[in-house]
Design a protein that fits this description.
Number of domains: 1
Order of helices and strands: EHEHEHEHE
Strand content: 25-35%
Shape: globular
Structural class: alpha/beta
Largest sheet: 5 strands, parallel
Radius of gyration: 12 Å
CATH topology: Hypothetical Protein Ychn, Chain: A
CATH architecture: 3-Layer(aba) Sandwich
Number of helices: 4
CATH superfamily: DsrEFH-like
C-alpha cells in the first residue's frame, strides 16, 4: 500500500495549499485536486509545472472530473501529468492509500 493521498481543494491562485502539499508529497504518494484545487491542473500555469515536477519525482497527480466540469475546464486544457478520476476513482484512491491528508 502506498503512503499518502493528498487532497487539495483551494485555488492555487489564491492560496498556498497546493505549494505546501507539493513540498511535502513524497514518491509513492498522490495528489488529488478537487473543488477549486482543479484550477492548478491548467496546462501552462506555474502550478502545472510544479505538478509535472512532482509527477516526474514519483508522485501521482489526479483531478476530480466533476469538479473540472463545474469549473469549465476541458480535458484538452489540462497539464499532461494529470489523470482525471470520477467519484468512484476518488473512493478507490482513498481506499488504496494508508493515509489521507487534506490541504485547505
Amino acid at each position: 500500500m502506498s503512503t499518502t493521498l493528498h487532497t487539495v481543494n483551494r485555488s492555487p491562485f489564491e492560496h498556498g495549499a497546493l505549494a505546501s502539499c507539493l513540498a511535502r508529497a513524497r514518491p509513492g504518494s498522490a495528489v488529488l485536486l478537487i473543488e477549486d484545487g482543479v484550477l492548478g491542473a491548467l496546462a501552462g500555469s506555474p502550478h502545472a509545472d510544479r505538478l509535472a515536477a512532482a509527477a516526474a519525482g514519483g508522485v501521482e497527480v489526479f483531478a476530480l472530473g466533476p469538479d473540472l466540469d463545474a469549473s469549465g475546464i476541458e480535458a484538452g486544457r489540462l497539464a499532461g501529468c494529470i489523470e482525471v478520476v470520477d467519484y468512484a476513482g476518488f473512493v478507490a484512491l482513498a481506499c488504496r492509500f494508508a493515509k489521507t491528508a487534506t490541504w485547505t
